[in-house]
User: Fold YcaO domain-containing protein from Halonotius terrestris.
Amino acid sequence: MRTKRADSSSPMSSPATRHTWLRTPTLSPKSCSGRCSESSRGIWTSSSPCTTTTRDASIRRVSSLARIVRYVTMPEVDGITVTEVDNGVVTEPRSDRERLGQIEHPTTGIITGVRRVPVPTGEPTIESYVVEREDFTPFTDGNSMPHDEGGAAFSEAAARTAAYGEAIERYCGCVYREDAFRTAAFDELTEPALDPTAVVNFSAQQRAAMANGTDLCGTDDELSWVSGIDLQSGTTTQIPAQLVYLSYPPSADPFIRNPISTGLAAGSSRAMAIDNGLAECIERDAFMIHYLTETELPVIDLETAPPRIRRLSDRVTGQGLELTVVDATTDLGVPVAIAVLVDREHRPAVTVAAAAGADAEAVLEDALAEVVQTRLSTVHRLSSTTRSPDEVVDSEIDSFADRALLWSEHDRIADLDFWLESDRTTTFNAFAPDESTGLNLVEAVTEAGYDVYAVDVTTRDIESLAVTVQRVIVPRLQPLYLLERLRYFGGDRLATVPVEMGYRDTPLGENELNTVPHPFP
Assistant:
Protein backbone atom coordinates (compact mmCIF):
# COMPACT_ATOMS: atom_id res chain seq x y z
CA MET A 1 0.00 0.00 0.00
CA ARG A 2 1.52 3.30 -1.07
CA THR A 3 1.07 6.07 1.46
CA LYS A 4 2.59 9.48 1.82
CA ARG A 5 5.34 9.66 4.39
CA ALA A 6 5.31 12.18 7.19
CA ASP A 7 6.91 15.58 6.76
CA SER A 8 7.13 17.13 10.20
CA SER A 9 7.97 20.50 8.72
CA SER A 10 4.67 20.69 6.86
CA PRO A 11 1.77 20.47 9.27
CA MET A 12 -1.76 20.59 7.93
CA SER A 13 -2.61 24.20 7.23
CA SER A 14 -6.39 23.89 7.39
CA PRO A 15 -8.71 22.42 10.04
CA ALA A 16 -9.07 18.65 9.92
CA THR A 17 -10.48 16.01 12.19
CA ARG A 18 -7.65 14.76 14.39
CA HIS A 19 -7.59 11.34 16.01
CA THR A 20 -4.83 10.14 18.27
CA TRP A 21 -4.78 7.61 21.05
CA LEU A 22 -1.38 8.69 22.29
CA ARG A 23 -2.09 12.21 23.46
CA THR A 24 -5.09 14.36 24.24
CA PRO A 25 -5.12 17.90 22.84
CA THR A 26 -7.70 19.93 24.73
CA LEU A 27 -9.71 22.64 23.01
CA SER A 28 -11.89 25.11 24.83
CA PRO A 29 -15.46 25.48 23.53
CA LYS A 30 -14.64 28.83 21.97
CA SER A 31 -11.60 27.52 20.16
CA CYS A 32 -13.40 24.74 18.31
CA SER A 33 -12.51 24.90 14.62
CA GLY A 34 -13.64 21.60 13.21
CA ARG A 35 -11.85 19.77 16.03
CA CYS A 36 -13.24 18.99 19.44
CA SER A 37 -11.57 17.06 22.20
CA GLU A 38 -12.23 16.32 25.80
CA SER A 39 -9.92 14.50 28.16
CA SER A 40 -12.65 13.05 30.39
CA ARG A 41 -10.17 12.43 33.19
CA GLY A 42 -7.63 11.04 30.76
CA ILE A 43 -9.81 8.25 29.43
CA TRP A 44 -10.89 9.59 26.06
CA THR A 45 -7.88 10.27 23.90
CA SER A 46 -9.43 11.08 20.59
CA SER A 47 -11.21 14.04 19.13
CA SER A 48 -14.38 13.79 17.09
CA PRO A 49 -15.55 15.73 14.04
CA CYS A 50 -18.02 18.46 14.76
CA THR A 51 -18.60 22.13 14.52
CA THR A 52 -19.62 24.24 17.46
CA THR A 53 -23.22 24.25 16.24
CA THR A 54 -23.42 20.48 15.91
CA ARG A 55 -21.60 19.93 19.17
CA ASP A 56 -23.78 22.28 21.19
CA ALA A 57 -26.99 20.83 19.81
CA SER A 58 -25.77 17.33 20.59
CA ILE A 59 -24.83 18.27 24.14
CA ARG A 60 -28.21 19.89 24.75
CA ARG A 61 -29.97 16.77 23.52
CA VAL A 62 -28.13 14.36 25.80
CA SER A 63 -28.11 16.74 28.75
CA SER A 64 -31.88 16.61 28.77
CA LEU A 65 -31.71 12.86 29.26
CA ALA A 66 -28.73 12.02 31.36
CA ARG A 67 -27.61 12.85 34.86
CA ILE A 68 -24.02 13.70 35.67
CA VAL A 69 -21.69 10.78 35.00
CA ARG A 70 -18.03 10.16 35.62
CA TYR A 71 -15.86 7.61 33.91
CA VAL A 72 -13.82 4.99 35.73
CA THR A 73 -11.19 2.90 34.00
CA MET A 74 -11.21 -0.82 34.76
CA PRO A 75 -7.68 -2.17 34.21
CA GLU A 76 -8.81 -5.79 34.29
CA VAL A 77 -11.26 -5.42 31.41
CA ASP A 78 -11.06 -4.05 27.90
CA GLY A 79 -13.49 -1.17 28.14
CA ILE A 80 -14.95 1.52 30.30
CA THR A 81 -17.50 1.26 33.06
CA VAL A 82 -19.87 4.17 33.56
CA THR A 83 -20.75 4.89 37.17
CA GLU A 84 -23.58 7.26 37.92
CA VAL A 85 -23.20 10.01 40.50
CA ASP A 86 -26.33 11.62 41.91
CA ASN A 87 -26.18 13.86 44.98
CA GLY A 88 -22.93 12.26 46.02
CA VAL A 89 -24.31 8.71 45.94
CA VAL A 90 -22.42 6.37 43.63
CA THR A 91 -24.59 3.61 42.20
CA GLU A 92 -23.55 0.31 40.66
CA PRO A 93 -22.15 0.35 37.12
CA ARG A 94 -24.93 0.29 34.56
CA SER A 95 -25.43 -2.33 31.87
CA ASP A 96 -24.84 -1.57 28.20
CA ARG A 97 -28.58 -1.46 27.68
CA GLU A 98 -29.07 1.06 30.49
CA ARG A 99 -26.25 3.29 29.24
CA LEU A 100 -27.37 3.20 25.63
CA GLY A 101 -30.96 3.74 26.69
CA GLN A 102 -30.05 7.33 27.59
CA ILE A 103 -30.31 8.24 23.91
CA GLU A 104 -34.00 7.24 23.85
CA HIS A 105 -36.53 9.98 24.53
CA PRO A 106 -39.76 10.76 22.64
CA THR A 107 -38.90 14.43 22.03
CA THR A 108 -35.20 15.03 22.66
CA GLY A 109 -33.51 11.70 22.07
CA ILE A 110 -31.43 10.54 19.13
CA ILE A 111 -33.81 7.59 19.32
CA THR A 112 -37.41 8.66 19.84
CA GLY A 113 -38.78 5.16 20.32
CA VAL A 114 -38.01 1.45 20.19
CA ARG A 115 -40.56 -1.02 18.85
CA ARG A 116 -40.54 -4.78 19.28
CA VAL A 117 -41.13 -6.63 16.02
CA PRO A 118 -43.53 -9.56 16.46
CA VAL A 119 -42.47 -12.87 14.93
CA PRO A 120 -45.06 -14.21 12.47
CA THR A 121 -46.58 -17.60 13.14
CA GLY A 122 -44.48 -20.40 11.73
CA GLU A 123 -41.21 -18.48 11.85
CA PRO A 124 -38.17 -19.09 14.11
CA THR A 125 -38.49 -17.23 17.40
CA ILE A 126 -36.06 -14.40 17.96
CA GLU A 127 -36.10 -11.06 19.74
CA SER A 128 -36.15 -8.23 17.22
CA TYR A 129 -36.43 -4.45 17.65
CA VAL A 130 -36.48 -1.48 15.33
CA VAL A 131 -35.77 2.07 16.37
CA GLU A 132 -37.49 5.30 15.53
CA ARG A 133 -34.97 8.08 15.52
CA GLU A 134 -34.65 11.78 15.15
CA ASP A 135 -33.91 13.20 11.71
CA PHE A 136 -30.25 14.18 12.02
CA THR A 137 -30.15 15.99 8.68
CA PRO A 138 -29.79 19.41 10.42
CA PHE A 139 -26.61 18.14 12.08
CA THR A 140 -24.79 17.01 8.95
CA ASP A 141 -23.71 18.21 5.54
CA GLY A 142 -24.29 14.70 4.22
CA ASN A 143 -27.30 13.17 2.53
CA SER A 144 -30.42 12.32 4.49
CA MET A 145 -30.63 8.65 5.44
CA PRO A 146 -33.56 6.27 5.95
CA HIS A 147 -34.73 5.64 9.50
CA ASP A 148 -34.76 1.85 9.53
CA GLU A 149 -32.17 0.70 12.05
CA GLY A 150 -32.86 -2.37 14.11
CA GLY A 151 -31.29 -5.31 15.88
CA ALA A 152 -32.05 -8.93 16.63
CA ALA A 153 -30.67 -11.57 18.96
CA PHE A 154 -31.76 -14.66 20.83
CA SER A 155 -32.25 -12.66 24.05
CA GLU A 156 -34.29 -9.54 24.71
CA ALA A 157 -31.45 -7.56 26.28
CA ALA A 158 -29.01 -8.39 23.49
CA ALA A 159 -31.56 -7.49 20.82
CA ARG A 160 -32.33 -4.08 22.33
CA THR A 161 -28.62 -3.36 22.77
CA ALA A 162 -28.04 -4.34 19.13
CA ALA A 163 -30.80 -1.98 18.01
CA TYR A 164 -29.35 0.90 20.04
CA GLY A 165 -25.89 0.12 18.71
CA GLU A 166 -27.04 0.07 15.10
CA ALA A 167 -28.72 3.45 15.52
CA ILE A 168 -25.62 4.92 17.16
CA GLU A 169 -23.38 3.60 14.38
CA ARG A 170 -25.54 5.12 11.66
CA TYR A 171 -25.85 8.40 13.53
CA CYS A 172 -22.11 8.84 14.10
CA GLY A 173 -21.30 7.53 10.63
CA CYS A 174 -23.49 10.17 9.00
CA VAL A 175 -22.90 13.33 11.05
CA TYR A 176 -20.13 15.60 9.77
CA ARG A 177 -19.40 19.14 8.66
CA GLU A 178 -17.51 19.87 5.46
CA ASP A 179 -15.39 22.56 7.07
CA ALA A 180 -13.84 19.88 9.30
CA PHE A 181 -12.19 18.27 6.25
CA ARG A 182 -8.89 18.96 4.55
CA THR A 183 -9.29 19.40 0.79
CA ALA A 184 -6.38 18.42 -1.45
CA ALA A 185 -5.21 15.94 -4.05
CA PHE A 186 -3.30 12.90 -2.81
CA ASP A 187 -0.26 14.10 -4.75
CA GLU A 188 -0.35 17.41 -2.84
CA LEU A 189 -0.34 15.92 0.65
CA THR A 190 2.94 15.76 2.54
CA GLU A 191 1.65 13.79 5.53
CA PRO A 192 0.84 10.05 5.40
CA ALA A 193 -2.32 9.39 3.37
CA LEU A 194 -4.21 6.48 1.87
CA ASP A 195 -3.63 6.32 -1.88
CA PRO A 196 -7.16 6.34 -3.36
CA THR A 197 -6.01 4.33 -6.38
CA ALA A 198 -4.87 1.50 -4.08
CA VAL A 199 -8.42 0.91 -2.81
CA VAL A 200 -9.90 -2.19 -4.46
CA ASN A 201 -12.85 -1.47 -6.73
CA PHE A 202 -12.92 -2.18 -10.47
CA SER A 203 -10.65 -4.50 -12.42
CA ALA A 204 -8.57 -3.38 -15.37
CA GLN A 205 -11.02 -5.18 -17.65
CA GLN A 206 -13.96 -3.33 -16.11
CA ARG A 207 -12.19 0.01 -16.37
CA ALA A 208 -11.42 -0.57 -20.03
CA ALA A 209 -15.10 -1.24 -20.69
CA MET A 210 -16.25 1.94 -18.97
CA ALA A 211 -17.21 5.08 -20.83
CA ASN A 212 -14.43 7.60 -21.27
CA GLY A 213 -16.26 10.08 -19.08
CA THR A 214 -16.33 7.86 -16.00
CA ASP A 215 -15.09 9.94 -13.08
CA LEU A 216 -12.77 7.50 -11.29
CA CYS A 217 -10.45 8.97 -8.71
CA GLY A 218 -6.79 9.52 -9.51
CA THR A 219 -3.93 10.71 -7.34
CA ASP A 220 -4.18 14.21 -8.83
CA ASP A 221 -7.90 14.59 -8.10
CA GLU A 222 -9.01 16.86 -5.27
CA LEU A 223 -10.65 15.00 -2.37
CA SER A 224 -11.91 15.72 1.13
CA TRP A 225 -9.79 14.06 3.82
CA VAL A 226 -10.26 13.09 7.45
CA SER A 227 -7.60 11.92 9.88
CA GLY A 228 -7.43 8.28 10.88
CA ILE A 229 -4.90 5.90 12.37
CA ASP A 230 -2.79 3.24 10.67
CA LEU A 231 -3.44 0.41 13.12
CA GLN A 232 -0.12 -1.30 12.47
CA SER A 233 2.21 1.68 12.87
CA GLY A 234 0.01 4.00 14.94
CA THR A 235 0.68 6.79 12.44
CA THR A 236 -1.95 9.45 11.86
CA THR A 237 -3.02 8.98 8.24
CA GLN A 238 -5.29 10.99 5.97
CA ILE A 239 -8.29 8.98 4.72
CA PRO A 240 -10.70 10.02 1.93
CA ALA A 241 -13.92 11.18 3.59
CA GLN A 242 -16.05 9.29 1.07
CA LEU A 243 -14.71 6.03 2.54
CA VAL A 244 -15.65 7.11 6.07
CA TYR A 245 -19.07 8.76 6.16
CA LEU A 246 -22.11 6.77 5.12
CA SER A 247 -24.03 9.91 4.18
CA TYR A 248 -21.22 11.36 2.02
CA PRO A 249 -22.71 12.31 -1.38
CA PRO A 250 -21.28 9.99 -4.07
CA SER A 251 -21.14 12.87 -6.54
CA ALA A 252 -19.14 15.16 -4.24
CA ASP A 253 -15.73 13.69 -5.15
CA PRO A 254 -14.24 11.55 -7.91
CA PHE A 255 -15.34 7.94 -7.37
CA ILE A 256 -13.44 5.50 -5.14
CA ARG A 257 -16.28 3.36 -3.75
CA ASN A 258 -20.00 3.77 -3.29
CA PRO A 259 -21.03 4.54 0.33
CA ILE A 260 -21.62 1.40 2.41
CA SER A 261 -21.66 0.57 6.12
CA THR A 262 -18.87 -2.04 6.01
CA GLY A 263 -16.48 -1.48 8.93
CA LEU A 264 -18.68 1.02 10.79
CA ALA A 265 -19.05 -0.26 14.36
CA ALA A 266 -19.67 0.81 17.94
CA GLY A 267 -18.20 -0.50 21.16
CA SER A 268 -17.68 0.30 24.82
CA SER A 269 -13.98 0.73 24.06
CA ARG A 270 -11.92 1.69 21.05
CA ALA A 271 -10.49 -1.83 20.80
CA MET A 272 -13.97 -3.38 20.88
CA ALA A 273 -15.32 -1.06 18.20
CA ILE A 274 -12.29 -1.67 15.98
CA ASP A 275 -12.63 -5.44 16.40
CA ASN A 276 -16.33 -5.23 15.53
CA GLY A 277 -15.66 -3.13 12.45
CA LEU A 278 -12.73 -5.23 11.29
CA ALA A 279 -14.73 -8.44 11.74
CA GLU A 280 -17.34 -7.03 9.37
CA CYS A 281 -14.66 -6.23 6.78
CA ILE A 282 -13.31 -9.79 7.06
CA GLU A 283 -16.81 -11.32 6.88
CA ARG A 284 -17.76 -9.44 3.72
CA ASP A 285 -14.40 -10.05 2.05
CA ALA A 286 -14.89 -13.78 2.60
CA PHE A 287 -18.48 -13.77 1.38
CA MET A 288 -17.71 -11.93 -1.85
CA ILE A 289 -14.68 -14.07 -2.65
CA HIS A 290 -16.44 -17.39 -2.12
CA TYR A 291 -19.71 -16.33 -3.75
CA LEU A 292 -18.23 -14.77 -6.86
CA THR A 293 -15.92 -17.77 -7.37
CA GLU A 294 -18.69 -20.28 -6.49
CA THR A 295 -16.28 -21.99 -4.11
CA GLU A 296 -17.50 -25.24 -2.56
CA LEU A 297 -16.99 -24.62 1.16
CA PRO A 298 -16.96 -27.10 4.07
CA VAL A 299 -20.33 -27.50 5.77
CA ILE A 300 -19.97 -27.21 9.55
CA ASP A 301 -21.51 -30.18 11.36
CA LEU A 302 -23.51 -28.32 14.01
CA GLU A 303 -23.88 -31.53 16.01
CA THR A 304 -20.22 -31.01 16.94
CA ALA A 305 -20.88 -27.45 18.13
CA PRO A 306 -21.36 -26.38 21.77
CA PRO A 307 -24.78 -27.13 23.34
CA ARG A 308 -26.09 -23.57 22.97
CA ILE A 309 -25.43 -23.56 19.23
CA ARG A 310 -27.17 -26.92 18.86
CA ARG A 311 -30.21 -25.59 20.72
CA LEU A 312 -30.33 -22.44 18.60
CA SER A 313 -29.95 -24.50 15.44
CA ASP A 314 -32.91 -26.63 16.51
CA ARG A 315 -34.91 -23.46 17.14
CA VAL A 316 -34.12 -22.12 13.68
CA THR A 317 -35.02 -25.37 11.90
CA GLY A 318 -38.00 -26.22 14.11
CA GLN A 319 -40.47 -24.68 11.65
CA GLY A 320 -39.38 -26.75 8.67
CA LEU A 321 -36.57 -24.55 7.39
CA GLU A 322 -33.32 -26.07 6.15
CA LEU A 323 -30.17 -24.58 7.68
CA THR A 324 -26.70 -24.88 6.18
CA VAL A 325 -23.70 -23.20 7.78
CA VAL A 326 -20.42 -23.22 5.88
CA ASP A 327 -16.89 -22.42 6.99
CA ALA A 328 -15.91 -19.40 4.89
CA THR A 329 -12.61 -18.71 6.69
CA THR A 330 -9.97 -17.28 4.38
CA ASP A 331 -6.18 -16.99 4.43
CA LEU A 332 -6.53 -14.42 7.24
CA GLY A 333 -7.27 -17.23 9.70
CA VAL A 334 -10.25 -15.46 11.32
CA PRO A 335 -13.35 -17.69 11.62
CA VAL A 336 -16.07 -16.72 9.14
CA ALA A 337 -19.43 -18.50 8.96
CA ILE A 338 -22.04 -18.13 6.23
CA ALA A 339 -25.55 -19.25 7.18
CA VAL A 340 -28.10 -20.17 4.51
CA LEU A 341 -31.81 -20.72 5.25
CA VAL A 342 -33.85 -22.54 2.62
CA ASP A 343 -37.65 -22.71 2.63
CA ARG A 344 -38.92 -25.14 -0.02
CA GLU A 345 -42.60 -24.50 0.73
CA HIS A 346 -42.97 -20.76 1.22
CA ARG A 347 -41.20 -17.51 0.43
CA PRO A 348 -38.54 -16.32 0.78
CA ALA A 349 -36.89 -19.43 -0.61
CA VAL A 350 -33.35 -18.33 0.24
CA THR A 351 -31.92 -16.13 2.99
CA VAL A 352 -28.22 -15.62 3.62
CA ALA A 353 -26.13 -13.97 6.35
CA ALA A 354 -22.57 -14.14 7.65
CA ALA A 355 -20.47 -13.37 10.69
CA ALA A 356 -16.79 -13.30 11.63
CA GLY A 357 -14.68 -12.94 14.75
CA ALA A 358 -12.17 -14.50 17.10
CA ASP A 359 -14.76 -16.45 19.15
CA ALA A 360 -16.07 -19.31 17.00
CA GLU A 361 -19.16 -19.95 19.13
CA ALA A 362 -20.11 -16.27 19.06
CA VAL A 363 -19.57 -16.22 15.29
CA LEU A 364 -22.01 -19.08 14.80
CA GLU A 365 -24.61 -17.52 17.08
CA ASP A 366 -24.28 -14.17 15.29
CA ALA A 367 -24.66 -15.83 11.89
CA LEU A 368 -27.80 -17.66 13.05
CA ALA A 369 -29.34 -14.52 14.53
CA GLU A 370 -28.48 -12.50 11.43
CA VAL A 371 -29.97 -15.00 8.98
CA VAL A 372 -33.21 -15.22 10.99
CA GLN A 373 -33.44 -11.43 11.24
CA THR A 374 -32.85 -11.12 7.50
CA ARG A 375 -35.54 -13.72 6.79
CA LEU A 376 -38.09 -11.95 8.99
CA SER A 377 -37.29 -8.63 7.31
CA THR A 378 -37.80 -10.27 3.92
CA VAL A 379 -41.09 -11.86 5.01
CA HIS A 380 -42.32 -8.39 5.95
CA ARG A 381 -41.15 -6.88 2.68
CA LEU A 382 -42.81 -9.60 0.62
CA SER A 383 -46.09 -9.14 2.46
CA SER A 384 -46.13 -5.43 1.73
CA THR A 385 -45.24 -5.44 -1.98
CA THR A 386 -47.18 -6.27 -5.11
CA ARG A 387 -44.04 -6.59 -7.21
CA SER A 388 -43.12 -9.87 -8.81
CA PRO A 389 -39.57 -11.30 -8.87
CA ASP A 390 -39.89 -11.23 -12.66
CA GLU A 391 -39.89 -7.44 -12.45
CA VAL A 392 -36.39 -7.36 -10.97
CA VAL A 393 -33.78 -6.53 -13.62
CA ASP A 394 -30.43 -7.95 -12.52
CA SER A 395 -28.33 -5.05 -13.76
CA GLU A 396 -30.61 -2.50 -12.07
CA ILE A 397 -30.57 -3.98 -8.55
CA ASP A 398 -29.71 -1.19 -6.12
CA SER A 399 -31.45 -2.13 -2.86
CA PHE A 400 -31.93 -4.96 -0.41
CA ALA A 401 -35.61 -5.00 -1.38
CA ASP A 402 -34.65 -5.94 -4.94
CA ARG A 403 -32.23 -8.65 -3.80
CA ALA A 404 -34.72 -10.08 -1.33
CA LEU A 405 -37.39 -10.24 -4.03
CA LEU A 406 -35.01 -11.86 -6.51
CA TRP A 407 -33.96 -14.57 -4.05
CA SER A 408 -37.49 -15.19 -2.77
CA GLU A 409 -38.27 -17.52 -5.68
CA HIS A 410 -37.66 -21.27 -5.34
CA ASP A 411 -35.83 -21.41 -8.66
CA ARG A 412 -33.00 -19.56 -6.94
CA ILE A 413 -32.18 -22.37 -4.51
CA ALA A 414 -30.11 -24.15 -7.15
CA ASP A 415 -27.97 -21.02 -7.56
CA LEU A 416 -26.42 -21.80 -4.15
CA ASP A 417 -25.82 -25.50 -4.75
CA PHE A 418 -22.07 -24.93 -4.50
CA TRP A 419 -22.69 -24.41 -0.76
CA LEU A 420 -25.91 -26.31 -0.15
CA GLU A 421 -24.72 -29.46 -1.91
CA SER A 422 -21.07 -29.23 -0.89
CA ASP A 423 -19.27 -32.53 -0.39
CA ARG A 424 -16.83 -30.88 2.00
CA THR A 425 -17.54 -31.06 5.73
CA THR A 426 -15.85 -29.88 8.90
CA THR A 427 -16.37 -29.82 12.66
CA PHE A 428 -16.72 -27.03 15.17
CA ASN A 429 -13.27 -27.72 16.61
CA ALA A 430 -11.69 -27.47 13.17
CA PHE A 431 -13.59 -24.23 12.53
CA ALA A 432 -12.52 -22.65 15.83
CA PRO A 433 -9.09 -21.01 16.15
CA ASP A 434 -6.45 -22.37 18.49
CA GLU A 435 -7.31 -20.68 21.81
CA SER A 436 -3.70 -20.84 22.94
CA THR A 437 -2.68 -18.40 20.19
CA GLY A 438 -5.01 -15.64 21.44
CA LEU A 439 -6.24 -14.59 17.99
CA ASN A 440 -5.99 -10.81 17.48
CA LEU A 441 -7.92 -9.56 14.47
CA VAL A 442 -5.74 -6.54 13.72
CA GLU A 443 -2.59 -8.65 13.91
CA ALA A 444 -4.15 -11.38 11.77
CA VAL A 445 -4.88 -8.93 8.97
CA THR A 446 -1.71 -6.82 9.14
CA GLU A 447 0.56 -9.88 9.41
CA ALA A 448 -1.06 -11.17 6.22
CA GLY A 449 0.22 -8.01 4.54
CA TYR A 450 -2.88 -5.82 4.55
CA ASP A 451 -3.03 -2.24 5.84
CA VAL A 452 -5.82 -1.48 8.32
CA TYR A 453 -7.01 2.02 9.21
CA ALA A 454 -9.51 3.30 11.78
CA VAL A 455 -11.26 6.65 11.90
CA ASP A 456 -12.95 7.74 15.13
CA VAL A 457 -16.34 9.17 14.14
CA THR A 458 -17.74 9.36 17.69
CA THR A 459 -19.80 12.49 18.25
CA ARG A 460 -19.59 14.35 21.56
CA ASP A 461 -23.04 13.29 22.73
CA ILE A 462 -22.31 9.60 22.10
CA GLU A 463 -18.85 9.92 23.64
CA SER A 464 -20.52 11.06 26.86
CA LEU A 465 -22.12 7.60 27.13
CA ALA A 466 -18.70 5.88 27.17
CA VAL A 467 -19.36 4.54 23.69
CA THR A 468 -17.06 4.91 20.72
CA VAL A 469 -17.81 4.46 17.02
CA GLN A 470 -15.03 3.60 14.61
CA ARG A 471 -14.93 3.26 10.84
CA VAL A 472 -12.45 0.52 9.95
CA ILE A 473 -11.05 0.44 6.42
CA VAL A 474 -8.98 -2.34 4.85
CA PRO A 475 -8.38 -1.03 1.33
CA ARG A 476 -7.23 -4.28 -0.31
CA LEU A 477 -9.82 -6.70 1.05
CA GLN A 478 -12.56 -7.67 -1.40
CA PRO A 479 -15.42 -5.20 -0.91
CA LEU A 480 -19.12 -5.94 -0.76
CA TYR A 481 -21.14 -4.07 -3.38
CA LEU A 482 -24.87 -3.38 -3.32
CA LEU A 483 -25.34 -1.89 -6.79
CA GLU A 484 -25.14 -4.46 -9.59
CA ARG A 485 -24.04 -1.79 -12.04
CA LEU A 486 -21.04 -1.15 -9.77
CA ARG A 487 -19.69 -4.64 -9.17
CA TYR A 488 -16.13 -4.75 -7.87
CA PHE A 489 -13.89 -7.34 -9.55
CA GLY A 490 -10.59 -5.59 -8.80
CA GLY A 491 -7.76 -6.66 -6.53
CA ASP A 492 -6.13 -10.08 -6.45
CA ARG A 493 -8.05 -11.91 -3.73
CA LEU A 494 -10.73 -13.33 -6.04
CA ALA A 495 -7.93 -15.19 -7.81
CA THR A 496 -5.59 -16.05 -4.95
CA VAL A 497 -7.70 -16.98 -1.91
CA PRO A 498 -9.58 -20.04 -3.26
CA VAL A 499 -6.27 -21.46 -4.48
CA GLU A 500 -4.38 -20.64 -1.27
CA MET A 501 -7.13 -22.27 0.80
CA GLY A 502 -6.87 -25.44 -1.29
CA TYR A 503 -10.36 -25.18 -2.77
CA ARG A 504 -9.18 -24.66 -6.35
CA ASP A 505 -6.12 -25.77 -8.26
CA THR A 506 -6.03 -22.71 -10.50
CA PRO A 507 -7.58 -19.25 -10.21
CA LEU A 508 -10.77 -18.35 -12.04
CA GLY A 509 -10.64 -15.77 -14.76
CA GLU A 510 -12.81 -12.70 -14.49
CA ASN A 511 -15.15 -13.97 -17.20
CA GLU A 512 -15.75 -17.11 -15.11
CA LEU A 513 -17.04 -15.27 -12.04
CA ASN A 514 -20.60 -15.77 -10.79
CA THR A 515 -23.01 -13.54 -12.71
CA VAL A 516 -26.08 -14.11 -10.48
CA PRO A 517 -26.65 -11.08 -8.21
CA HIS A 518 -25.51 -12.01 -4.73
CA PRO A 519 -28.05 -12.56 -1.90
CA PHE A 520 -26.15 -10.71 0.84
CA PRO A 521 -28.49 -8.33 2.71
Remarks:
- The mean pLDDT is 85.
- The CA atoms of residues 118 and 203 lie 44 Å apart.
- The radius of gyration is 23 Å.
- The longest strand covers residues 222-230.
